[in-house]
Design goal:
The chain is α/β, with parallel strands linked by helices and 270 residues long. 35% of the residues lie in helices and 24% in strands. Helix 4 packs across helix 5 and helix 5 packs parallel to helix 6. The C terminus is likely disordered.
């Protein structure tokens, strides 16, 4: 990926406008810290980039290396190298983890993966994310702890090796050791050339993965796109400085919470 360009992006869900003119550019090897108060559109932005059908683009476009991907299905965006790790990964009853991973990999290949290669990938992957291999036979995320779900998301990232990985509060609910592991996995993926958009409310994760940029979302727009010093400023002062220093209204506009339930990740099987 050379660049992802978001041009004047407006999007709604259930008739409620959430994104109100997002302009943002992600360059190759960028690691963008996406900041902002709860409910102002950060997670919505990631879901719209990924193509969650719950959201409707009403204006603007998303360009990946010059190609308008605004109307592409989720699976096609994934094949182009986009990946989204959910804040609350859904439990999928009846789908074994191993079958899910195999289908996931095969959907990104011209020919099916061999059993030998698949076994080696999973063995090394489970070791790297520090999960037991016997989770292979469990149903996807069913009965997993919060930490196991987050590590499982990172294993998906490792197996897919995306061009752009979007992490939605991947650090929420993690203890110190798990947080360090997640950060190590992100840093290893960075070395492979993957770009990142990372949402977090905690400076600790950002101190470990070292973003090169930071942007703040307020009421469905990018209020500031700047240097990583914004992370420290938000951590120490909150978002009040946006009003006092820039005259930006940080009051949340009245809206209804949208429950996406990661609906873009799975299709009903008939």
């Amino acid at each position: 990926m050379k660049e992802l360009v978001i041009d004047n992006l407006h999007a709604e869900a259930d008739g409620l406008e959430i994104l109100k003119g997002i302009n943002l550019k992600i360059n190759q090897k960028d690691v963008l810290a996406l900041l902002g108060p709860n409910g102002h559109g950060k997670s919505t932005l990631l879901n719209v980039i990924m193509g969650n059908p719950r959201y409707k683009i009403t204006k603007g476009a998303i360009y990946l290396d010059g190609e308008d991907i605004s109307n592409l299905e989720v699976d096609n965006r994934s094949k182009l190298g986009l990946f989204l790790a959910f804040q609350n990964p859904p439990e999928v009853e009846g789908v074994e983890v191993m079958d899910f991973y195999k289908q996931m990999l095969n959907s990104h290949r011209e020919s099916p993966i061999s059993l030998f290669e698949f076994y080696n990938l999973l063995t090394s992957g489970y070791k790297e994310v520090e999960l037991p291999e016997d989770m292979n036979t469990r149903h996807l995320n069913e009965g997993f702890s919060g930490g196991e779900k987050k590590r499982n998301e990172m294993l998906q990232m490792k197996l897919l090796n995306p061009k752009l990985a979007m992490l939605d509060e991947i650090d929420s609910g993690l203890d110190v050791d798990a947080l360090k592991l997640i950060a190590d996995l992100v840093n290893k993926q960075k070395e492979k050339g993957t770009s990142f958009i990372v949402i977090s409310h905690y400076a600790r994760l950002f101190s470990l993965i070292k973003p090169n940029r930071a942007a703040i979302v307020i009421n469905g727009k990018i209020a500031i796109d700047g240097e990583t010093s914004l992370i420290d400023k938000v951590d120490k002062q909150g978002y009040e400085f946006l009003h006092s220093e820039y005259g930006i209204d940080i009051k949340k506009h009245e809206q209804t919470k949208v429950n996406v339930l990661a609906s873009c990740a799975f299709k009903k099987v008939k």
